[in-house]
UniProtKB/TrEMBL annotation:
Protein name: Glycerol-3-phosphate dehydrogenase, mitochondrial
Positions of the EF-hand domain: 623-658, 659-691
Pathway(s) served: Polyol metabolism; glycerol degradation
Species of the source: Gasterosteus aculeatus aculeatus
An MF annotation (GO) of this entry: glycerol-3-phosphate dehydrogenase (quinone) activity
SUPFAM superfamilies, alphabetized: EF-hand (SSF47473), FAD-linked reductases, C-terminal domain (SSF54373), FAD/NAD(P)-binding domain (SSF51905)
Primary location class: mitochondrion
Keywords in alphabetical order: Calcium, FAD, Flavoprotein, Metal-binding, Mitochondrion, Oxidoreductase, Repeat, Transit peptide
Top-level enzyme category: oxidoreductase
C-alpha cells in the first residue's frame, strides 16, 4: 500500500497534474522558472568574500591555525565532505575542511561519471514493492536535475541505449524505463523512446546486430567527477570556508562536558602533510565524511566502535573513442555474472565499467587484470564481430572503492544499507557514510541538519539547492567562441577550457603562453593528442594542486584518459610546477617518480605491461635480442619499456635531424601494432622479425 501511495504521489506531484493544467511548452517554461527561482533564493543574501581572488593554500592553513574556534570542521575532501563544507558555510556557520590527500583523490574521482537515479534500483523497488528504495531513486533524480542546473559546464544529459535481443523484453524494459521518466516528473531530462533494429544500428553502428530486436533509449546525466568535486570545494572556499588539502587528522581533540562529565569531541590535531607541521583546529562540531576510511576516524573517537564500512571495488577501463558514438551510451543490464556494465562516451574516449567485488580499504587501489578482462569480455558480447576488442586498446584503468555501509542503529547490523546513513556518536562525532555521487548535496543537507540539532548551532536553513558552483556563472554553450576570438586559442582547446572551467576559462586563457606560431597564437599543448595546455598547470596551482599527480589526475584528466600521454606530459608539468613552487632538483625527481608510480600502479600501467609481456612471442636468437634491445634503449633512455614520439624527437634533434611531427606519428603508427599510442619493446622486436 505504501508503494502504491508513492506512485500516486509521483503522478500528481511529479508532473501528471501539472502537465494536465499546462501544455507542454508551458510545462517547460514552468521548469525553467522553478530552477531560476531556486537559484535566486539560494544566492539571496549570501556573502561571497573571495569572489575575485581565491585564498592560497598557505592562507587557508593560516586561517585554520589562527581561528579560535570553528562551528564545523569537516574531515574529508571528497564529494560528500566538500558538499558538507559548502552547505555549512552558506548557512553562515564558521566552517573548516581538511583532506589528508588531494580533493577528490579517492572514490569521488573514480566513478562511472554518471549523474543518475539508478534504473536498476527502481526495478528492484517495483519488483519488491520497496518504498525506501523508490524514495532513494526519486531523491537521486531530483539531485540529478539540480546538479545539471548548478554546474552546466561540467555536466550534460546523455542518451543511453538499452539494446533488446528478445521480443518479450521490449515491453518489459519499456515499462521500466517509462516508470523512470515518471518518477523524475517535471525534472525528467528528456522522454525515453523505442528504436527499431535499423534505427538502433544507425545510432550505434558498433552494436552486435545478430538477434537484435530493437532498443530503448533513456536519458541520464554525465559529468566530470573530479572537476565537479573541485568546483564544490572551491565554491565553499569562495564563500569563506577554510579548506586545505594535504592536511591530515592525527587525532581527535576532546574535552569534558561540564554538565554530564562525558568526553566530547571539540576539534582535531592536524598535520600539514607537505611540511610536517602539526596544529590544533578547534570546532564545536566535527563531521566525519571520509568515505571508505569512515571507520578509521570513528575508531579515533572510540577504539571499541564496530566497523560499519564494507568496501567494494569497482574497476573501470578507458578505450579509444571509436568504440562508441560521440553522444550515445550503452547499458548492459545483465552481464554474464548478473552485474551491470555501462559503456559510455567520455572526454572523446569510451569508458566501460564497473565491476563490484569486496576489497580491503586502501588509499591506493589497483585495478586487477581479471576485472579488466571481464569488462572486455562483456564488451565483446554487445559489439559487432567486425569490431575487434583488444587488450592493447585499454588506455587506462582504475579501481574506486565504494563505501557500502551497515546501519549501526539497525537491529540487523550485517545488512548493507542501500542508502546513506548519518550517525552521531556519544561524544558528538557526526558521521555521514554511504550514498552515491549524485546525492552528495542532499546527504550534506541531512548531515548539517543533524549537526545543527545535536550541537545547538545557530544556523540558517540550507541554501545549496540552485546554488551555482565554481565556473557556472558566465558560462554559455558558445563561450568557447569568445576564447578563440579574443585569445587566439585552437577551437578544440577553447571548447575544452569552456567545458572544464566555465566562466573561469578566461582566467586560464590569460595564463596561456604565446606559441610563436601563426596559429594558434596562445596555448601550447602538454601533449599533441589532447587539448590540455601548459597554462592549466599554472592555474592548477591556484586551485590548490600541490603535486604532479594532482594535475594529471584531477585538475586535468589526462591520467584517467591515457596513461602513456600522461607519462609524456609529466616532465613538462614537473618543470612548470617546480619553477612556480620553487622545487629543488631533488624534489622534481621525487615528484616525477611518484607520478609515474601512480600511473604504473593505480592507472593500469602495470597490468598492461604484464599482459604484453605474457602474450608476446619473438623468434630471435639471444645475440639478436641483445643487439636490438640496445637499439631500442637508445630511444627509451628512461627505461619506461616503450617509445613515444617525444623520445624519437629528442634522439633525432640530438643528431640535428628534423621530421614533421605528423609524419613521425604516421611512422610510429606503423610499428604500434596494438594502436595504443606507444611502441613497446615487444612491438619493436616483432617489427624487426617481420622485416
Amino acid at each position: 500500500m505504501a508503494f502504491r501511495r508513492a506512485l500516486k504521489h509521483t503522478a500528481v506531484v511529479g508532473g501528471g497534474a501539472v502537465a494536465g493544467v499546462f501544455g507542454l511548452s508551458q510545462l517547460i517554461e514552468y521548469k525553467k522558472t522553478q530552477a531560476q527561482l531556486a537559484r535566486v533564493a539560494a544566492e539571496a543574501d549570501l556573502r561571497v568574500p573571495f569572489a575575485d581572488d581565491l585564498p592560497s593554500r598557505q592562507a587557508q592553513l593560516a586561517a585554520l591555525q589562527s581561528t579560535e574556534e570553528f562551528d564545523v570542521l569537516v574531515v574529508g575532501g571528497g564529494a560528500t565532505g566538500a558538499g558538507c563544507a559548502l552547505d555549512a558555510v552558506t548557512r553562515n556557520l564558521k566552517t573548516a575542511l581538511v583532506e589528508r590527500s588531494d580533493f577528490s583523490s579517492g572514490t569521488s574521482s573514480r566513478s562511472t561519471k554518471l549523474l543518475h537515479g539508478g534504473v536498476r534500483y527502481l526495478q528492484k523497488a517495483i519488483m519488491q514493492l520497496d518504498y525506501e528504495q523508490y524514495m532513494m531513486v526519486k531523491e537521486a533524480l531530483h539531485e540529478r536535475a539540480n546538479l545539471l542546473e548548478i554546474a552546466p559546464h561540467l555536466s550534460a544529459p546523455l542518451p543511453i541505449m538499452l539494446p533488446v535481443y528478445k521480443w518479450w523484453q521490449l515491453p518489459y524494459y519499456w515499462a521500466g524505463i517509462k516508470m523512470y521518466d515518471l518518477v523524475a516528473g517535471i525534472q525528467n531530462l528528456k522522454s525515453s523512446y523505442v528504436l527499431s533494429k535499423a534505427s538502433a544500428l544507425e545510432r550505434f553502428p558498433m552494436l552486435n546486430k545478430d538477434k537484435l530486436v530493437g532498443a530503448i533509449v533513456y536519458y541520464d546525466g554525465q559529468h566530470n567527477d573530479a572537476r565537479m568535486n573541485l568546483a564544490i570545494a572551491i565554491s565553499s572556499a569562495r564563500h569563506g570556508a577554510a579548506v586545505a588539502n594535504y592536511t591530515e587528522v592525527v587525532r581527535l581533540l576532546k574535552t569534558k562536558d561540564p554538565q554530564g562529565g562525558e568526553e566530547k569531541v571539540c576539534g582535531a590535531r592536524c598535520r600539514d602533510v607537505i611540511t610536517g607541521q602539526e596544529f590544533d583546529v578547534k570546532a564545536k562540531c566535527v563531521i566525519n565524511a571520509t568515505g571508505p576510511f569512515t571507520d578509521s576516524l570513528r575508531k579515533m573517537d572510540n577504539q571499541e566502535t564496530k566497523n560499519i564500512c564494507q568496501p567494494s571495488a569497482g574497476v573501470h577501463i578507458v578505450i579509444p573513442g571509436y568504440y562508441s558514438p560521440d553522444n550515445m551510451g550503452l547499458l548492459d543490464p545483465s552481464t554474464s555474472d548478473g552485474r551491470v556494465i555501462f559503456f559510455l562516451p567520455w572526454e572523446k574516449m569510451t569508458i566501460a565499467g564497473t565491476t563490484d567485488s569486496p576489497t580491503s580499504v586502501t588509499a591506493h587501489p589497483i585495478p586487477g587484470e581479471d576485472d579488466i578482462n571481464f569488462i572486455l569480455r562483456e564488451i565483446r558480447n554487445y559489439l559487432s564481430p567486425d569490431v575487434e576488442v583488444r587488450r592493447g586498446d585499454v588506455l587506462a584503468a582504475w579501481s574506486g572503492i565504494r563505501p557500502l555501509v551497515t546501519d549501526p542503529n539497525s537491529k540487523d547490523t550485517q545488512s548493507i544499507c542501500r542508502n546513506h546513513i548519518v550517525s552521531i556518536s556519544p561524544s558528538g562525532l557526526v558521521t555521514i557514510a554511504g550514498g552515491k555521487w549524485t546525492t552528495y548535496r542532499s546527504m550534506a543537507e541531512e548531515t548539517l541538519d543533524a549537526a545543527v540539532k545535536t550541537h545547538g548551532l545557530s544556523a540558517q536553513p540550507c541554501k545549496t539547492v540552485g546554488l551555482m558552483l565554481e565556473g557556472a556563472k558566465g558560462w554559455t554553450p558558445t563561450l568557447y567562441i569568445r576564447l578563440v576570438q579574443d585569445y587566439g586559442l585552437e577551437n578544440e582547446v577553447a571548447q575544452h577550457l569552456a567545458s572544464t572551467y566555465g566562466g573561469k576559462a578566461f582566467d586560464v586563457a590569460k595564463m596561456a603562453k604565446v606559441t610563436g606560431q601563426r596559429w594558434p597564437i596562445v596555448g601550447k599543448r602538454l601533449v599533441s593528442e589532447f587539448p590540455y595546455i601548459e597554462g592549466e598547470v599554472l592555474y592548477a596551482i591556484k586551485e590548490y594542486a600541490c603535486t604532479a599527480i594532482d594535475v594529471i589526475a584531477r585538475r586535468t584528466r589526462l591520467g584517467f584518459l591515457n596513461v602513456q600521454a600522461a607519462d609524456e606530459a609529466l616532465p613538462r608539468i614537473v618543470q612548470i610546477m617546480g619553477k612556480e613552487l620553487g622545487w629543488s632538483e631533488e624534489q622534481k625527481t621525487t615528484e616525477l617518480e611518484a607520478a609515474r608510480k601512480f600511473l604504473y600502479l593505480e592507472m593500469g600501467y602495470r597490468s598492461r605491461s604484464e599482459q604484453l609481456t605474457k602474450t608476446s612471442e619473438i623468434n630471435l636468437d639471444n645475440q639478436e635480442v641483445v643487439r636490438y634491445k640496445k637499439r631500442f634503449h637508445k630511444f627509451d633512455k628512461e627505461s619506461k619499456g616503450f617509445i613515444t614520439t617525444v623520445d624519437v624527437q629528442q634522439v633525432l634533434e640530438s643528431i640535428n635531424v628534423h621530421i614533421d611531427e605528423n609524419a613521425l606519428h604516421e611512422i610510429l603508427n606503423e610499428v604500434d601494432l596494438n594502436k595504443n599510442g606507444q611502441v613497446e619493446i615487444d612491438e619493436f622486436m616483432q617489427t624487426i622479425v617481420r622485416l
